Structures are given as C-alpha cells and as structure tokens.
C-alpha cells in the first residue's frame, strides 16, 4: 500500500497501461494555518511493476508543435500511458525526445520535472 498526500499536482498510477489519477489538495502544503482542514491521505493499492508518475506543469505548458500550442496535460497523460510498459531508460529517452521535438526552436518556458518510479 502506498500513502499519497499532495498539493496541486496529481500522482499518476499506471498498471497494465491503465491510468489512475490521484489529485492532490488545492492548497499549498507549506501553509501552517488550517493544514489539518485540507490535507488528505489516499491509500493506493500497488503491485510489482506498477508505474508511478509525478510532474510539474513545465512539460505540459511547453509551446511547440505545428500550431505552436501547449503540449497539454491530456497529451502528456496519453504519452505516459503509451510508454508505461517500456524500461525506465526507454521511457526517459521517449519523454526527452518527445519534449525536444515538440519544443523545436521555441525557448523552454518553465522548469520541467517528471518523476517516474517502477515498483
């Protein structure tokens, strides 16, 4: 069992190419006032070979592509689902090449953090 508690960003759990999205609280965890009022813990049943992903908004917000639009969270989730059964190294290479191909000659607009863990 995994215990998850987050703020503003989701935890993505992938098992057999099926995504489950666990949303974090809508508040900043650093706020000491009323912390008990909005922090929630989520118990997640995990198994060997499941994948867990957490990410900042930098990848999804990057402009690029043919129409110079944002990559989008929807597109990022589809990519995560597609690559989830690859090895960690193959996932890294796929994510990296997808990001830089999408970005093209555009400037990177934000920091990009994407963490993937195979259980």
List keywords for this structure.
119 residues, alpha+beta, two-stranded antiparallel ribbon, 4 helices, 29% helix, 25% strand
Descriptive report:
The chain has 119 residues and is of the alpha+beta class. Helix content is 29%, strand content 25%. It has four helices and eight strands. It has helices at 35-38, 58-61, 73-83, 88-103, and strands spanning 2-4, 11-15, 18-22, 42-44, 51-55, 63-64, 69-70, 114-118. The strands form three sheets. The protein has a four-stranded antiparallel β-sheet with strand order 3-2-5-8, covered by helices on one side. The protein has a two-stranded antiparallel sheet with strand order 1-4. The longest helix has 16 residues, at 88-103. 13% of the residues are buried.
Short description:
This protein has 119 residues and is of the alpha+beta class. 29% of the residues lie in helices and 25% in strands.
End-to-end separation in angstroms reads 11 Å
Helix content: 25-40%
Main sheet: strands, sense, barrel: 4 strands, antiparallel
**What is the overall silhouette?**
globular
Low-confidence stretches: none
Task: Furnish the topology, listing elements before pairings.
Layout: E1 2-4, E2 11-15, E3 18-22, H1 35-38, E4 42-44, E5 51-55, H2 58-61, E6 63-64, E7 69-70, H3 73-83, H4 88-103, E8 114-118
Antiparallel strand pairs: 1-4, 2-3, 2-5, 5-8, 6-7
